[in-house]
Amino acid sequence: MSTAPYALARYRDGGDVRVGLVAGDRIRPLSPDELGGGLNAFLADPDWDRIAALVEAPGAWRPLSEVTLTAPVEPRQVLQTGANYRQHVIELVAAGLTQNTDRSPEEARAFAADMMDERARSGSPYFFIGLAACVVGDDEPLVLPGYSQVHDWELELAVVIGRQAFRVSREDALDHVAGYTMVNDITTRDLVFRKDMKEIGTDWYRAKNAPGFLPTGPLLVPARFVDPADTPVRLELNGQVMQDANTSDLLFDVPALVSAASQTHPLLPGDLLLTGSPAGNGQHWKRFLRDGDVMTGTIGALGTQVVRCVAEEMK
């Protein structure tokens, strides 16, 4: 399931959710004593060598196929990063997702390219806040709200915060990263911009925070096994490749993102910091999510996420 030697996961055990150690195609529960507390307590000071030693230790190992994995994290805060892949923004602006409707597609593409190059030289990351309640595992279907027909996918590498980060430098930022997971940051495109008062700008609350709009996991992979500067990101829709990129195209890399986000408010153990979506969203393809669609996401060593879409049952 993952190319990493081991990872953490959370899985359903009757009516409970337990933290487990995944190694290859097997999983075993991790007790609070083995973790040194709960999941977020472990992430606050992660001793991965202690966890690695358990891979060869006896325990109640089970085939991974026998359990149902759910979201591998329990964040208190979720930060999302916008406009952080150069090609992604160029495509969105050229497709018409902009406040300015006077430019031709060619002019819009050139404008976006210049804008992104200038941001890379002198700008700073663009963050907005997601609801932790929207974080679910891919064991839950993605219910497509009936109030729109333009729900879109955005597969992203997500940073899992370890030791609390507050006003940390770029040089020290990776010391506060416990690991990585993947998140499909679902967006309802026609709600991104306010229509009643365009001067307000974007409305990320309505566009991104419907129930289940942050399918996450299935694995939390230790930072030592992931190169956030060179990791492939790939999403297939019903077997057709839609996103196929690499984190090397990030405008602001993980150290820059963690440092910048921590300047305003402390990032807490277990929090998620999404790094942004690469090109290939539905807005580009003019194809949005429908009832019965299946999205399959893979990001480097993070395993495979399979999200099944269902239409909302209107009452």
Short description:
By secondary structure, the protein is of the alpha+beta class. It is built from 8 helices and 20 strands.
Describe the structure.
The chain has helices at 32-35, 39-44, 48-53, 86-94, 105-122, 204-208, 254-262, 282-285; strands spanning 7-13, 16-23, 26-29, 62-63, 68-70, 78-82, 126-130, 135-136, 142-144, 151-152, 155-161, 177-184, 187-188, 214-215, 221-222, 232-237, 240-246, 272-274, 294-299, 304-311. The protein is of the alpha+beta class. Strands 7-6-18-11-12-15 form a six-stranded mixed β-sheet.
Number of DSSP helical runs: 8
The helix-and-strand class reads alpha+beta
Q: Helicity, in percent?
A: 10-25%
**Strands, count:** 20
Radius of gyration: 19 Å
- Oligomerization: single chain
Order of helices and strands: EEEHHHEEEHHEEEEEEEHEEEEHEHEE
Shape: globular
Biggest beta sheet attributes: 6 strands, mixed
List segments where confidence is low: pLDDT < 50 over at least 5 consecutive residues: none
Order of strands across the biggest sheet? 7-6-18-11-12-15
DSSP strand (E) fraction? 25-35%
Averaging pLDDT over every residue, what do you get?
93
Alpha-carbon distance between the termini?
39 Å
